[in-house]
Amino acid sequence: MVLAGHRVTHGEPFRDLQRLQIGDEIVIETLTSGYIYRVTSGSGGSLRVADSASWVLAPSPRNPDRGGISPPHSTRLITLLTCAELFHTSDRFVIFGELVRTYLRVHPHPEA
User: Fold this and answer.
1) How high is the pLDDT of residue 74?
2) Which one of the listed residues 83, 88, 107, 109 is annotated catalytic?
3) Are 39 and 24 in contact (CB under 8 A)?
4) Mind listing the pLDDT tens digit of every residue in the chain (112 residues)?
5) Which DSSP string corresponds to the chain?
6) Rounded to an integer, what distance in angstroms lies between the CA atom of residue 10 and that of residue 25?
7) Fold for domain 2-104?
8) What are the extents of the domains in the chain?
9) What count of other Cβ atoms lies within 10 Å of the Cβ of residue 41?
10) Does the pTM exceed 0.70?
11) Quick check: is 10 catalytic?
């Protein structure tokens, strides 16, 4: 799963993305399910790529730079992506995380 978001405007969903650290949890919820991922790489803004770096969007991303940051081999991976600077920039911050747990969301039925 790949999620991209703005750091400014539109609710600023990824304003502080670079503050995530290895081991932090990322919680994604849908109407029926929840997914908990743990940050595995890219913490602290350590993975900065050009906006043309398409490898970060692959289902199993592999950094083409020898010795560069890559996520662990995992079939259940999340990639978070945002602008590297608050305003115009052609670089992106990238965070990778592994799925550690899922859960079903319980919704009470509205009273009639």
Assistant:
1) 66
2) 83
3) yes
4) 898 887 777 767 888 888 999 999 999 999 899 999 999 988 888 888 888 898 888 888 888 886 677 777 767 899 999 888 777 778 889 999 999 999 998 875 565 4
5) -EEE--SSSTT-TTTTGGG--TT-EEEEE-SSEEEEEEEEE-GGGT-EEETT-GGGGSSS---SSTT-----S-SSEEEEEEESSSSS-SEEEEEEEEEEEEEEPP-PPPP-
6) 23
7) Sortase; Chain: A; (2.40.260)
8) 2-104
9) 18
10) yes
11) no
Tokens of 63: 């950094």
Token pair recorded at residue 85? 């600077």
Encoded tokens for 67: 């010795």
Tell me if residue 83 is catalytic.
Answer: yes
The one-letter code for the residue type at 89 is T
